[in-house]
Structures are given as structure tokens and as C-alpha cells.
Amino acid sequence: MKSRKLLSGPYLFWAASFIIIPLLMIVYYGLTDKEGGFTLLNLAQITTPENLKALGLALLLSFISTLLCLVLAYPLAMILSEKNVNQTSFIVLIFILPMWMNFLLRTLAWQNLLEKNGIINSILGFFHLPAQTLINTPYAIVLGMVYNFLPFMVLPIYNVLAKIDKDVIFAARDLGASGIQTFSKIILPLSVPGIISGVTMVFVPSLTTFVISDLLGGSKILLIGNVIEQEFKQGSNWHVGSGLSLVLMIFIIASMALIAKYDKNGEGTAF
Question: Which parts pass through the membrane (predicted)?
Fold first, then answer.
């Protein structure tokens, strides 16, 4: 018993230092003014036209990115779940491999691909095709989100599909169910925990990101994450930045509640 407590010591220290204390600081700054008095004005800053526009655009691009990730990930996860272990392990490794690379470097690579004199336009120019305006657009931001967060959609869905008993599917087909009926009545309902987990793991970071919109949007397209970053770094206004962060935490708490409701057994856990 004592050894377990000793082993949990480093984790508790890490959790307190990098999770609990920073979170308490955000709550403190978000609910106080510069004089230290209690206020809700920092939270109310989300209602300004500029912040509402940034939040609305972030919600829209996050929704589109999440939907695209789901459309791409589900068929791929189904294909992976039907492969043998060695083939699946190799293909899953290909998806996990980019995650070992620094997030910033992956996004910078897309910046080099999409910029005006980048690789894509160079290839188009080689074939005497007109150059395309790809960088500094919402499309570039969505592309960056899909590329960076697609593995977080594939892995939980694959994890759930791989656990489905094949005998259940065979039994349905023996009873005369068509492929569409088998999918809609058995496979899809059983994969809901993985879908919910994947949607959450893509939507939340897409909503709060500021690096992707900074690099691929050229600081011309402001999402709510960029507004919060500016409040902390440029305006040095920790109180407003923390207040806006607390508003975004509502979406995080809602996503956690969604996972807890539909994935009670942790079947959609990606790792």
C-alpha cells in the first residue's frame, strides 16, 4: 500500500504543477479585475461583436473539420478492422507516425506547400496551370485541422470496430440481413462510443487552436483561440484572456459529459 502511494507521488506532483495550479490561476484571473475584486465582466467579453465573430467562425470551421475527419476516418477504420494484425499494425503506425513529429513542424510543412510560391503552385506552374490562392484562407485552416487531427478520429473508431464480435455480424447475415442493414442495425450502433470519442478529440482542439490559424490563416483570420492568445501575449490582459478561456471550458466540460454518457465502458479510448 505504501509503495503504491510512493509510486503515485510523481503523478500527483505533475498533476498539481501542470494541471490544477494553472487551472486555478485561470479561474482566479477570469473572475477578478486588475484590483483583485470579483467580476463577471471578463466572461461577458465573449459577447462583443469581434469575439462573437471569432467564436462563430471557430465553431463553424471546427464543425466542418470534424465532419470531414469523420467522413474520412470511418471507412478507413472499417477497412483497418477487417485486415489481419500485421497489416493493421503497419497501417496504424503510418497514422501514428506523424504524431511523433512536432505539431508546429507539421503545420509549417503545410504552409510551405500552400503559400503563393510554394510547392503546389510550383507544380501547377510547371504544367502551365494558373496559380491558386491557397494560403491565408479558411480552406487552408480546415485542411490543417483535418491533417493534424485525423488520427484522433481514426484510432478510437478503429478501436471500437475491432472489438465487435464477428460472429454477431455473421449471424445477422445468416438471418438474411443485407450489408446496409447489418451496418445500420449492428455496426453503426456499436461504434457510437468510438464516434463520440473521436468527434470530441477532434472538435475540442480544433475549436481552441491558434497555431494552425496563425500559420495557415496568416493572422488575417481570427479564431477565438487567436483572440485569447492576443489577450495574453500582446495585450498582457490575463483577466480578459482567462475569462474567455473559462467560456471555452464550457465546451470542454460538455464534451466530457458527452463521452461519459455514451462511452461508459471506455470502449472508444484511442490509446
Answer: 12-31, 51-77, 89-109, 139-161, 182-204, 240-260
Half-sphere exposure of 185 (CA within 13 A, CB side): 12
- 263-267 long-range CB contacts below 8 Å, 24 or more apart? 263/193, 263/194, 263/196, 263/197, 265/193, 267/159, 267/160, 267/163, 267/193, 267/194
Is 70 exceeded by the pLDDT of residue 24?
yes
Say if domain 54-224+248-262 classifies as CATH 1.10.3720.10. yes
Which single residue is written with the C-alpha cell 461583436?
49
**Phi/psi zone of residue 72: left (φ > 0), alpha (ψ -120 to 50 degrees), beta?**
alpha
Enumerate the domain spans of the chain.
Answer: 54-224+248-262
Give the whole-angstrom CA distance, residue 65 versus residue 59: 10
Strand partners, 38: 32
Task: Provide the 8-state DSSP code for 128.
Answer: T
Give me the pLDDT at residue 177, please: 87
